[in-house]
Design brief:
This protein is mainly β. It contains three helices and ten strands, in the order E-H-E-E-E-E-H-E-H-E-E-E-E.
Length: 182
C-alpha cells in the first residue's frame, strides 16, 4: 500500500465515518521489543487541543491494551479498507492476554517512523501519537445520565489524548483544495 506523509494541517477525512463505520486499530507498546498489543476502537476523536493536533481514544481498564497504554508514552491508530473488517472484528473481540491474536489475521505490524508502537503494512492510514493527557471517567461527572448505561460493569474508560507526531495515509486523506497558509 502506498502511503504518503501528510501534515496534520493537510489531513482530511470524514471523522464520524472513520470512527463509527470504518473503525480504527489502536496499538500501544514497543514494536522493536515485540511487546505491544492492539485493539479495535470505535470511540474517539481527532481535532485540536492546547493548540496541537490530537487523537483521543478511550480504553476500559479491563482490556489488555490498557496496561500497554499505561506503560508506554505513545500509540498509533490505523485505518483499513473494508476487506480487513473481519480482522478488525477479531482484534476488537479477542484478548491479546490469551495469545498472539495478530497471527489469526492478515495484518502485518511494521515499525513506525517516530513512535515505538507499530503501524500496519495493510493500513491505508497510520497516525502516530505521543500521549499528552489521560484521565479516568468519573460517573458523577456525566452530565447525560444515559451515559451510565454504557457501563453496566462500572469499568469506566481511561481517556488518552495523544499529540499527532506523524500521519501516513493514502492520497484520499490528503486535502488538495485548501489554502496552505490557513
Amino acid at each position: 500500500m502506498k502511503r504518503i506523509s501528510i501534515s496534520p494541517k493537510d489531513f482530511q477525512t470524514r471523522i464520524h465515518h472513520l470512527w463509527y463505520h470504518q473503525s480504527l486499530l489502536l496499538s500501544s507498546g514497543d514494536f522493536s521489543k515485540n511487546e505491544f498489543n492492539c485493539m479495535t476502537v470505535g470511540w474517539g476523536s481527532i481535532g485540536t487541543m492546547w493548540s496541537m493536533p490530537f487523537v483521543q481514544v478511550v480504553v476500559r481498564p479491563t482490556r489488555y491494551t490498557h496496561q500497554f497504554m499505561e506503560k508506554y508514552s505513545d500509540f498509533t491508530v490505523s485505518a483499513f479498507g473494508r476487506e480487513y473488517q473481519k480482522d478488525l472484528n477479531l482484534l476488537g473481540t479477542k484478548s491479546g492476554r490469551d495469545g498472539d491474536k495478530l497471527t489469526e489475521t492478515s495484518l502485518t505490524p511494521i515499525k513506525s517512523s517516530i513512535v515505538a508502537a507499530p503501524g500496519y503494512a495493510e493500513a491505508e492510514l497510520v497516525i502516530e501519537c505521543k500521549k499528552m493527557f489521560s484521565s479516568t471517567f468519573k460517573p458523577e461527572e456525566f452530565l447525560d445520565p444515559t451515559i451510565e448505561d454504557k457501563y453496566p460493569n462500572k469499568d469506566y474508560h481511561t481517556v488518552y489524548y495523544g499529540s499527532i507526531e506523524a500521519i501516513f495515509g493514502t492520497e484520499k486523506y490528503l486535502a488538495t483544495n485548501i489554502n496552505s497558509d490557513s
